[in-house]
Amino acid sequence: MRRILIWFSAVFFLGGAGRLVAGAEDDPAPPPNRPNREEFKEQARMLPPAERQKMIQEFREQHRLGATNGADWEKRREELKNLPPPEREAKMKELRRPLLQGAPGPNTLSPQEREAKRKELKERIDAQVSELEKKKADGTITEVEQRRLERMQQMSRRLEAGGPSGPRPSSPADARPEKLPPPAPR
Q1: Residue 139 region, left (φ>0) first, then alpha (ψ -120 to 50), else beta?
Q2: On the chain, which terminus has fewer CB atoms closer than 10 Å, C or N?
Q3: Strand ranges inside 46-145, DSSP E
Q4: How many Cβ atoms sit within 10 Å of the Cβ of residue 60?
Q5: C-alpha to C-alpha distances, 22 to 17, 19, 38, nearest whole angstrom
Q6: Planar angle of CA 151, 154, 159, nearest 5 degrees
Q7: Is the C-alpha dihedral spanning 142, 144, 146, 148 positive or negative?
Q8: How do the residues of the chain divide into helix, strand and coil, expressed in percent and rounded to 5?
């Protein structure tokens, strides 16, 4: 009896796991500009170690993963450690300056440029919506594509409804409305 129960539970769990893996086929394909990991690994596997390291370094720099290289941080740390205190202080201020200024934010576009970008984005979204609506009309749309169609339609409506937006606040404190005057005495 015990063997039958174990056998039944094993078949049940393995059958359920097969269905879970089969659901992965419904996932949408990654965007075309995303690098293919398997292809990259295969290319790296065929290279000698020195060339492989060079290829990985170039990939990290190209895809903005250069900051994950611990060797650069160690080298910088050693350089700073060997400097006299006043020079170290000046060097650290110099290194911190770009970090404190931060990357240029989304508000670097003029209102005309922002509106042009909004129109360009709306055109791209509308093209995708019409493509998905054709599939829906043909009856060949999948569940994943149906959800994508609904989301794209929402984005299109938002872009259509939203006119030119003003500059965004640079910090949460700037986003707060001005303090209201105290209520008038009764």
Answers
A1: left
A2: C
A3: none
A4: 14
A5: 9, 5, 20
A6: 125
A7: negative
A8: 75, 0, 25
User: Residue 66: its pLDDT value, please?
Assistant: 45
Give per-residue pLDDT as tens, 152-176.
999 999 888 875 454 454 555 554 5
Q: How far apart are CA 99 and CA 103, in angstroms?
A: 8
HSE-up (13 A, CA, CB side) for residue 21:
6
Q: Is 39 helix (H, G, I), strand (E, B) or coil?
A: helix
Amino acid in position 123:
E
- CA–CA separation, 150 and 132 (whole Å): 10
pTM for the predicted model, two decimal places:
0.35
Q: Note whether 120 and 90 are within 8 A (CB).
A: no
Q: Which residue has the tokens 């060797």?
A: 71
| Each residue's pLDDT tens digit, 121-157 | 999 999 999 999 999 999 999 999 999 999 999 999 9
Angstrom distance (rounded) from CA 65 to CA 55: 13
Please name the amino acid found at residue 149.
Answer: L
Q: What average pLDDT does range 101-117 have in this prediction?
A: 74
